[in-house]
Amino acid sequence: MNFILPAKLQNIIENIIIYHNFFIKKHSFSLFLCIFASKIIHRTQNYIIMNEQNTLKPYVIGLDLGGTNSVFGIVDSRGEIKATTAIKTGGFETAEAYVDASVTALQPIIEQVGGIETIKSMGIGAPNANYYKGTIEFAPNLPWAHEGIVPLAQMFSDRLSGIPVAMTNDANAAALGEMVYGVARGMKNFIVITLGTGVGSGIVVNGQLLYGHDGFAGELGHVTMVRGKEGRSCGCGRTGCLEAYCSATGVARTARELLAKTTRKSLLRDMNPEDITSLDVSIAAGKGDELAKEIYDFTGHMLGEACADFTAFSSPEAFIFFGGMVKAGELIMKPIREGYDNHVMKIFRGKAQFLISGLDGASAAVLGASAVGWEI
Prior knowledge:
By secondary structure, the protein is an alpha/beta fold. It has three domains: 4-56; 59-176 and 369-374, ATPase, nucleotide binding domain (Nucleotidyltransferase, domain 5, 2-Layer Sandwich); 183-358, ATPase, nucleotide binding domain (Nucleotidyltransferase, domain 5, 2-Layer Sandwich). It has helices at residues 4-18, 20-23, 29-56, 95-112, 152-159, 170-181, 243-246, 248-261, 278-286, 290-314, 330-343, 364-374; strands at 59-65, 69-76, 81-88, 119-125, 129-130, 135-137, 149-150, 165-168, 190-195, 199-205, 208-209, 318-322, 353-356. The protein has a five-stranded mixed beta sheet with strand order 3-2-1-4-8, sandwiched between helices. A hairpin with a 2-residue loop joins strand 10 and strand 11. Helix 6 packs across helix 12 (364-374) and helix 9 crosses helix 10 (290-314). The longest helix has 28 residues, at 29-56. The chain is globular and about 60 Å long. 39% of the residues are buried.
């Protein structure tokens, strides 16, 4: 690739430096000009090198490592997924066996885009991932990682010709994906909240993801919303966590509790309580079921109250919601905004946007993981 403009710029600045000695005795400003010029030359050279590298290696691998499935995608810098493959995450007794199966599945799609020489790096979004160490640590839903620390980034790098590999948790990957490809492009302060089986969060402050000193910061799903004995038990081992109320499983739990406590009519009574999902509640609410609407009001208001608290420490310009539950649309978004407005400090009122992820649901997680790879 030719970089005509940077080359011309470099030539002009080099001429400025050549004539520096002639002017330095008469023009004190020329010293500053030459220092400034040298910096531009250095940055221009870095720009050329970076673009040449991206031309030679135009792709990254994104891995969305979930509890059930692991989905791989090869992605270009525009966010276009060129090839995909997938394997089951479970069923492996060791991490080595998981990586072996992953690399075997990856080889055909790597060859499809021109071989490993075209791959710049790999990014992984995974539960209990430590960004600093490249490890998965005590992940309860991964049979090959639930009892210890797995150096997964290094394991993949070793098997993929030494390409750099970085990883972070799935919510942080979603935040990066929004910043690179989605509705957060151009934003420097925002919070992504993922609403699925659990409640995850990715916090971006001044253009940087918040990792904390150990790589695990940003667990907003585990802030305590209900204290004391009345708080629901949470999978983390504590009680009263936001996740226990505002996740998809939390919505289903609220439905079962209301059905047990009241005799009110509801379409949900036609179902086995243990089979009720958040989707069932959403469908019932969409049909005008008042009990189902109340469930979403309760969930949304609590989530809005939590967002009001989150605003106090990072003052985000936007909250971006991602995951299956946001398909409920205004059923969940309207009470979120109401709960937020009723509890946020006055100095923050009217400043934050409440947005739904702009990424396609089927590919969003892979794009988020690929964004981790572009950051290396």
